[in-house]
Amino acid sequence: MSYEHASKTLPSSSRFGRENEQSQPNSSMSSSQNQGHFGGRGNGHPPWLRGKEIGLYYRDLQRNRAKKRELRIIKLKQRVEQTMKLAVENSKGLYNKLCDDEEKRNSTSNDLENKYTHIHDSQFKRKFLEILSGNIQHNITKAMSVKSKLERDPVSDKNLLDEYNGKLYNSDYKAMQAFRKKLPAYEKKADILDLIKKNQVMVISGCGKTTQVAQFILDNELEQRNGSITRIICTQPRRISAISVAERVAAERGERLGKSVGFQIRLEKISPRERGSILFCTTGMLLQFMQSDPALKGFSHIILDEIHERSTESDFIITLLKQIIPVRPDLKVVLMSATLNSERFSSYYNNCPIIHIPGFTYPVEEFYLEDVLLLTGFRLVDSSFKEKEPAYRRHQKKYKQQHEKTCHFLNIINPYIKQLTLEKEYPKFVIDQLCNPDSENLSLELIEELIHHICTTKEPGAILVFLPGMMDIVKLNRIMLNSERYPNSRYIIYPLHSRMPTIDQRLIFKEPPTGIRKIIIATSIAETSITIEDVVYVIDCGKTKLSKFDVNKNMETLEPEWVSMANAKQRRGRAGRVKKGYCYHLYTKAREMTFDDYPLPEMLRTRLEEVILQIKILQLGEAKQFLASVMDPPNLKAIDLSLDLLRTLNALDNDEHLTPLGYHLAQLPLDPRTGKMIIWAALFSCIDPVFAIAASLTFKDAFYCPLGKEEQAMKKKLELSMWQFSDHIALAEALRRFEINYSFGFCHEYFLSFNTLKLLSEMKRQFTQHLYEMKFLDNDNPIDEDANRNSNNIALIKAIVCAGLYPNIATIKHGSDSKHGVIAWTPEDGSVKLHPSSVNNKMRNFPSPFLTYFTKQRSTAIYLHDTSCVTAPILLFAGSNSSIKRENGKYIITLNTSQNFVCEPRTAKVIQDLRQAINNLLEYKISHPGTVNWNTQEGQILNALIEFVSQTDEEMGFVVSGAQSNQQSNTGLITLKLWRDGFTINDREIRPYSDAENREFLAAIKRGEIPAEIRQEVQDAELRLDMEDHRHEEYVPPKTKVKAFTGKGHMLGSPSPATVGMTIPTDPADQAANESQAKKQLNLDTTKPITTIQIRLADGSSVRAQFNLTHTINDLRRYITTYPLMITLMRPQYAIRDFSLLTMYPTKELTEDKTIEETGLKNATIMQRLK
């Protein structure tokens, strides 16, 4: 079943509510098609209704939906309610403000100190209040009074000079210096050093500056006996750049890393010596250094490289340096930029001097769209847009947008067409096609024709094709393969995208054997991140996909747009590196004249939460005031949206001050949402899976999708998701299994990147170190037992993820059908889609109508990325600012994401009281960092919450339209197949046409009615009836389908089952008897504390059962062996085989004589392993 707001619908070509008894429709059944459907209007009324009948149909439909909504009443189980009440009662007064006496408040002069008198005096409190009350100018002044690490030391100066002079006689070093002297930058060495000497700030543009400028400075300072007061830091925009440049510079100096050259990036560093050295690092690392050294007294020279890329971090540092430079006259700042926009940086720094380093490349001949059409003779399809549309269409939004786009195109192209016509350089068919507005649309067919033209008329050389996105790469690759014009014996095609495997990427950089042409199809990743030396031909489609933030819709976008001149120049420069090159632009010269000079700065197209937290932790004042001083100030609305989200996360208070939680989040190298996740995970003792999820969301997930293997990749991802309707669980499980296997074979089987998983594993360890230093963990081991006591509880993991991502909540409208993915709904956007990469996108039925998601992005549609299906209890925990109101005698809990939950009065009260107790506890733990003592009231409160979120919607009475488990996917969906001698319903036994019992059924079908038998089967559910005509075929019994278990008992950390469970039709009475028999063996005492445990059986299936906390592991074993439905019936051989019971996080075998309470299995999931 699927969901539509509060009511259920089924994806189909025909939908039916309960049939109006007054209508007796007449219809005939068509046999001309192999598969026919009733209706055909999607969500509309049945086509045979007329007049008043249509109105009555919709009236009844609305009444049914309203009735179903009323059924959504939450009611707690008595046992869970008692647990929650007891926890709330015992917590009363526990976390009241401890220092709130009026006398102390009056004696506190500082308003901020007065606000936080309830926090015990501690190192945390002192640091926190210092951050709140300080400012950057005070910090810089204070830092200037501290003794510098770069104090002059004549002895060090002499030793460093002697070492440098000694190199001059080394043959390897001399050979390297001879090579360096041939570089264009070396000719400008004297001029660069002279400008640095005379100016505090300068800009260098041009070629070869990255590896040479820092060495020029260091060598000069060593020669001047200034080695002891010289420490150069050079920032790079990417991790790989920082490492590779450091390695290259060290090699040029005849050294290994760690002497005069080193690097530092997140998770990895090889530090150089403290004096007379160069440190290459990412831009973010310099920001971290500034937290402890605001005046940057530990460095003599700051080199900011690749600043023309305008990353948020580089713009941030450029602004900050303007405050540091006046008080550090000895500090030298070198800004290194591409030639195109170096003047802007000079202007920002009071017209500081610029020096340009000329470079050498082979000439590149350029062609434009008009030339490509002439060369290939390609004919574009005529525009589908008609100016003379019917009057009613002219008022439609789509028409208006297309009309505006066409007018804009004609304003650009018409003057150019006149010029070309006068010059008579191009034939009429080219001119005519340039007038077509669709000539600016991406034509993969034209690109394939151009590639073929190059291959058949031009000399050997690699071809590099730039396309906007991955789907374009996939389609072009398919077109080329289907054309059969590129045999493997003569061509090798490489797709290049960040989501594609990188195992064989090194082959892209190697020249192919003689007689084979290399063709690379890439996105903008090939502009700067990589250099392929043998490229001779570049095809530039002129489009790119750039992630932006739409402030008006509060949404990220990823849509194709024209490149900038800087992008186009960079793409052209990929050719002509080894000989004369050729660049084919698939746009006209007229369009090129409209390009921006360079891409939009990142700060103007991204969310600003992390920037604002950096502003706060560096004590830079109000966000709007500081951001107004950057080179290109962001939109005020974008700042407001980010401030609102930080307040929702409780990272900022209403006065824009950091809260204790915000202080912690600002210390973490994470998006604030994922930062909140890992802190909550530490408090709830489930760090391993949540840290894996946070690392994947922060950096990138490890899944890739090879061309042609999309289905296999999705099947493996579904397996890793444990059928828990969660991309996040798949991320955690992928990393868990990798850390056990640690092999390329595992990664290859599951379509995972080994290098990405390795990095994610390191990030997990870094998170653990951070939280250990912040005192939220007792040690820095990510698989520590105490820190993972609840890591087997998938509901809790989802709850923590949801709490971090809130208010990113969507409601499922309907599940997937064969053609379309899942459709969901958000209050801001209405209907949205799940991204095709999500494991939830092909799910027909969900256990709950709610999804939480990481990002929402508009490309070809509005897509939700990284989703998890969450239950009503989880949403009630995660939702902030909930309120309870009484309406028509009922109590309604309202969340600020527009979800409402009707509940009984006492249920509403106990939920509200527990939420308050949880909030008090979390606030206390955040402001008094420390681990949770699970044997005290702290543990009691958290355990009560864990029991609450571990309930399913069904267990709480939150049932939407008779919601059932995912396994009952045939409910509401009927497939009727007509065979030569009879018919089948949902592939059951064939029913002969000649059988008198089937006469009424067939008569109803012929009349176009829904047979009473089917109406009775689906009861209140809305119906999809698919009819397939096989009357020309003999009936063939279907093969037994084997499918993986898709129930709700899977456990995070289960191994892949060697066999999968089969669905076995059983009588509900037999099943109840089996369960009753197993429970009798347990002697379950309902007067004592009870917990629910999910047991993952060895065949891949699961069972969920209740136990007393005093039951032992032996009792669990006995329950399994006396549960005939799951063991004796399904897998008789299991009943006689020995097995062990294990839990994961960390993996350990459970001791048989210990109780459930002693082993910490409350609300956990365990697994059976055969011996």
TrEMBL record:
<comment type="similarity">
    <text>Belongs to the DExH box helicase family.</text>
</comment>
<dbReference type="GO" id="GO:0002151">
    <property type="term" value="F:G-quadruplex RNA binding"/>
</dbReference>
<feature type="domain" description="SEP">
    <location>
        <begin position="971"/>
        <end position="1036"/>
    </location>
</feature>
<dbReference type="InterPro" id="IPR014001">
    <property type="entry name" value="Helicase_ATP-bd"/>
</dbReference>
<dbReference type="InterPro" id="IPR011709">
    <property type="entry name" value="DEAD-box_helicase_OB_fold"/>
</dbReference>
<keyword id="KW-0378">Hydrolase</keyword>
<dbReference type="InterPro" id="IPR029071">
    <property type="entry name" value="Ubiquitin-like_domsf"/>
</dbReference>
<feature type="domain" description="Helicase C-terminal">
    <location>
        <begin position="449"/>
        <end position="619"/>
    </location>
</feature>
<dbReference type="GO" id="GO:0005524">
    <property type="term" value="F:ATP binding"/>
</dbReference>
<dbReference type="GO" id="GO:0003724">
    <property type="term" value="F:RNA helicase activity"/>
</dbReference>
<keyword id="KW-0067">ATP-binding</keyword>
<keyword id="KW-0694">RNA-binding</keyword>
<dbReference type="InterPro" id="IPR059023">
    <property type="entry name" value="RNA_hel_CTD"/>
</dbReference>
<protein>
    <recommendedName>
        <fullName>RNA helicase</fullName>
        <ecNumber>3.6.4.13</ecNumber>
    </recommendedName>
</protein>
<dbReference type="InterPro" id="IPR002464">
    <property type="entry name" value="DNA/RNA_helicase_DEAH_CS"/>
</dbReference>
<dbReference type="Pfam" id="PF00789">
    <property type="entry name" value="UBX"/>
</dbReference>
<keyword id="KW-0547">Nucleotide-binding</keyword>
<dbReference type="InterPro" id="IPR007502">
    <property type="entry name" value="Helicase-assoc_dom"/>
</dbReference>
<dbReference type="InterPro" id="IPR001650">
    <property type="entry name" value="Helicase_C-like"/>
</dbReference>
<dbReference type="InterPro" id="IPR048333">
    <property type="entry name" value="HA2_WH"/>
</dbReference>
<dbReference type="Pfam" id="PF21010">
    <property type="entry name" value="HA2_C"/>
</dbReference>
<dbReference type="InterPro" id="IPR012989">
    <property type="entry name" value="SEP_domain"/>
</dbReference>
<feature type="region of interest" description="Disordered">
    <location>
        <begin position="1"/>
        <end position="49"/>
    </location>
</feature>
<keyword id="KW-0347">Helicase</keyword>
<feature type="domain" description="Helicase ATP-binding">
    <location>
        <begin position="206"/>
        <end position="358"/>
    </location>
</feature>
<dbReference type="Pfam" id="PF04408">
    <property type="entry name" value="WHD_HA2"/>
</dbReference>
<feature type="compositionally biased region" description="Low complexity">
    <location>
        <begin position="22"/>
        <end position="35"/>
    </location>
</feature>
<dbReference type="GO" id="GO:0016787">
    <property type="term" value="F:hydrolase activity"/>
</dbReference>
<dbReference type="GO" id="GO:0003678">
    <property type="term" value="F:DNA helicase activity"/>
</dbReference>
<dbReference type="InterPro" id="IPR027417">
    <property type="entry name" value="P-loop_NTPase"/>
</dbReference>
<dbReference type="Pfam" id="PF07717">
    <property type="entry name" value="OB_NTP_bind"/>
</dbReference>
<dbReference type="GO" id="GO:0005634">
    <property type="term" value="C:nucleus"/>
</dbReference>
<dbReference type="InterPro" id="IPR011545">
    <property type="entry name" value="DEAD/DEAH_box_helicase_dom"/>
</dbReference>
<dbReference type="Pfam" id="PF08059">
    <property type="entry name" value="SEP"/>
</dbReference>
<feature type="domain" description="UBX">
    <location>
        <begin position="1086"/>
        <end position="1169"/>
    </location>
</feature>
<dbReference type="Pfam" id="PF26026">
    <property type="entry name" value="RNA_hel_CTD"/>
</dbReference>
<dbReference type="Pfam" id="PF00270">
    <property type="entry name" value="DEAD"/>
</dbReference>
<dbReference type="Pfam" id="PF00271">
    <property type="entry name" value="Helicase_C"/>
</dbReference>
<dbReference type="InterPro" id="IPR036241">
    <property type="entry name" value="NSFL1C_SEP_dom_sf"/>
</dbReference>
<dbReference type="GO" id="GO:0005737">
    <property type="term" value="C:cytoplasm"/>
</dbReference>
<dbReference type="GO" id="GO:0051880">
    <property type="term" value="F:G-quadruplex DNA binding"/>
</dbReference>
<dbReference type="InterPro" id="IPR001012">
    <property type="entry name" value="UBX_dom"/>
</dbReference>
